[in-house]
Amino acid sequence: YGGRPGFLGFLRLARAAFAHLTVTGGMAVGESMIQQVLGLGIAARVSAKLGEGVLNGLMTARFGLAAMAVCRPLPFVREAPPRLSDVAGELLKPLADEAKG
């Protein structure tokens, strides 16, 4: 788009970024503490990392959609704006295809 958001748009974007970092950072700290306390096995650690990766991907997509909403100069007229469920479907499609074989 080539343009910068105004001050209020910047504040909205910064708030979304801070929320994203808070959730993902808190999740990483909590997960490592739980693993240390419970002494989980390798399979559980891999599963936790996979879940963390999916959640981080969804949070990043959410942040990108928030940035698009703040920075986009014109509203969507002919098409509906992208939603998190649209992006999540694209993120999870390779996992579903791989599970099918």
The fraction of residues assigned to DSSP E strands is: under 5%
Provide the succession of SSEs.
HHH
Structural class: mainly alpha
**Which stretches are poorly predicted, pLDDT < 50 over at least 5 residues?**
none
Please outline the major beta sheet: none
For the CA atoms, what is the radius of gyration? Answer: 17 Å
Overall tally of domains: 1
Q: How confident overall, as mean pLDDT?
A: 73
- For the secondary structure, the number of strands is 0
Number of helices: 3
Distance from N terminus to C terminus (CA atoms, Å) equals: 40 Å
Bin the helical content: over 70%
Task: Please state the overall shape, judged from the principal axes of the Cα atoms.
Answer: flat
Topology, please?
Elements: H1 7-38, H2 42-71, H3 84-100
Structure in words:
The longest helix has 32 residues, at 7-38. The protein is flat and about 50 Å long. The mean pLDDT is 73. The chain has helices spanning 7-38, 42-71, 84-100. The protein has three helices and no strands. It has one domain. 78% of the residues lie in helices and 0% in strands. It is mainly α and 101 residues long.
Provide key terms for this protein.
101 residues, mainly alpha, single chain
